[in-house]
Design goal:
This protein is α/β, with parallel strands linked by helices. The chain has a single domain, classed as Vaccinia Virus protein VP39 (Rossmann fold, 3-Layer(aba) Sandwich), CATH 3.40.50. It has three helices and seven strands. The longest helix has 15 residues. The termini are far apart.
């Protein structure tokens, strides 16, 4: 059986092999960092130097209190991200199943890629037409089937 730590490491490895993410110039945001007890919290630093973790009700010192799924990202970028220099924003997260549609809608507004682990079967959520599925895999975790997907935004 796979542990949460092994699952997170596997997902990070898949992201490294699938996407070009600049360690020095890109930013990764986890908007649902508290879900699954901060699954990606200690692993994202292997991908980038700059990472931000958010949740409505954080329980960890590295997670900021913000509901990024309902936030106006233009305002957020001008205030919270002001002063950060980055080329692209990537999302890596494990959103709660009941928030999957809201997660997809919100993150596709600002991210160049969206990578997520979910127990919600693919096809139950809709990505905009300018996002393409680059990677998909099924994994068992604690007797639950999870789907890990990597979507990338393309210029149409």
């Amino acid at each position: 059986m796979t542990t949460k730590d092994e699952m997170a490491q596997h997902c990070i490895k898949a992201i490294k092999e699938t996407l070009f993410i600049s360690y020095e110039k890109d930013l990764i945001i986890d908007p649902c960092a508290q879900n699954e007890e901060g699954l990606f919290l200690k692993h994202i630093d292997a991908l980038v130097r700059f990472s931000l973790f958010y949740d409505k009700e954080p329980k960890h010192t590295h997670i900021s209190a913000t509901d990024l799924l309902t936030t106006d990202f233009d305002y957020f970028e001008k205030t919270r991200l002001a002063g950060l220099w980055y080329d692209a924003i990537h999302v890596v997260s494990c959103p709660p199943p009941h928030l999957i549609e809201q997660f997809v809608t919100a993150t596709c507004k600002f991210a160049q890629s969206v990578s997520f682990l979910s127990s919600v079967k693919p096809g139950k959520h809709t990505f905009p037409p300018n996002f393409f599925l680059m990677y998909e895999e099924k994994k068992m975790l604690n007797k639950t089937l999870y789907y890990f997907q990597i979507w990338i935004k393309a210029d149409l």
